[in-house]
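hey can u check if this looks right to u? its 279 residues, i copy pasted from the old doc so theres a chance i mangled smth
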Amino acid sequence: MNVPAHGGRLAARAAVAIALMITVAACSGTQTPTFPVVEAGAESVEPVAVERRDVVSVVVLEATVRASAEYRLAAPKSGSLTVSVTAGKPVGKGQQIGHVDGTPIVAPEAGSVLEWLVPSGAKVIDGVPVVALRLPGYGLVAQVPQSQVYRVLSGQISARGQITDGPGPFDCPLLPGTPQPGPGVAAVCVIPEDVQAFDGLSGLLALKTAERKRVLTVPVGAVTATSGRGEVWKVVDGVPTRQEVEVGISDGINIEIVSGLAEGDLVLPYSPALRRPQS
């Protein structure tokens, strides 16, 4: 059977995300108990329980394999820049290539200095890119949409890559986020030397942006949420009532409940924004 191209990309995207989360799912899986249905007029809906689970937040991006991929490093703080390794020179992994008032700028991977964006001795601002570097091998490069930038750049991030119709998923070091022309920033994953790659191939980059262990959760469809606050239909004595909640991270299936509900509480599987129980 022929599968449309877009269907193949979606399947590959799902495979990478599942590969990242499968260990967590295996550890947190529990048998779901059966609860009495809620009678509300003509409809009968089985509520779901608030349960403790591990939640892993993953962003999956379309990516491209690039030979000698470029990336940038930012100033670690505001101050005066001093250049230690000039443009065109090779650098080793972990080598200091400059500093800002004594705070080192370190190459996260082996490669070479492509160019300094700011001259030595100039005043720089914390977080502004100051140097461009080049990898000796292949990188998997993805553009991060503006809507995902703060999610991706906050907290500890790990990455896995998948080359379309090729190797993967594989673990790969994620280099610092790099501002680029246009919306978003570039995420660059260093493809391991033992993974065969070719310049220009398409792929997927899955970024694990956060992880929570044994937190209270409900299905994402049960919550109406914006900016960390939300509402659910909490079922008390068989009657659905609106309940405000504070929410955390989501893996696309379940969402963390920070406050407003307790373990074992029952909620309807749809949110107040989707529909109101019939009366």
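The helical segments are 5-28, 149-153.
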